[in-house]
Model the fold of this input.
Amino acid sequence: MKDLQTMIDESNNIVFFGGAGVSTASGIPDFRSSTGLYHKYPYRAETMLSHTYFMHHTEDFFQFYFREMIHKEAKPNACHKKLMELEKVGKLQAIITQNIDGLHQMAGSKNVLELHGSVQKNTCMKCHKKYTLEEIEKSHICTCGGTIKPDVVLYEEPLPNGVFEAAIEAISKCDTFIIGGTSLAVYPANSLVQFFHGKNLVVVNLEETSLDKKATLVIHDDIAKVFSKIKTD
Done:
């Protein structure tokens, strides 16, 4: 923690890249741990969350989606809040997240790059009218008769236009790159580290990752617990 605090104190351009582990402390289950979503059903979560399944089994998709992917009771945890504070004091320049829960924005962070979209945003596939999460809970059929699709990246779909490029630009300019709460198993998100040329590469994750040997600092611990100890003043 002392080393991490020193790196943060001496940095002026920090970028944070987070995965599912950032949200688990808020009560949102991850995918790939032994108790995660991938181990909960006899069928593959990739199938249920694919573009093909959405198009051909829309009703079943939404049943699964609202049962497993929507967690309206979740609130920002210590990690979300500390990142907001780091942004507020000018240390943190960008948050890049694989999560779709919108908790970073709920905590007050401004520059959030959502690689996989957000459950808070939804668009009619026919007329492109926008809908809130609360609205599509009542009906996923648009007033025009089209199907409303959550603005989240399903399997078989590309990342949102411009988001990956913005992430690359932010990473290439930062002096400290903190990667937290991710197994680094998802491509292309796990390829972003190649664009980092700064001083400090920090990995905070419960389990080992493929970057541990390359990192300047590795902390194997709960990310919310670690970030709760960071001082921003």
Notes: Strands lie at 14-18, 92-97, 112-114, 117-124, 130-131, 148-152, 176-180, 200-204, 217-219. The mean pLDDT is 92.
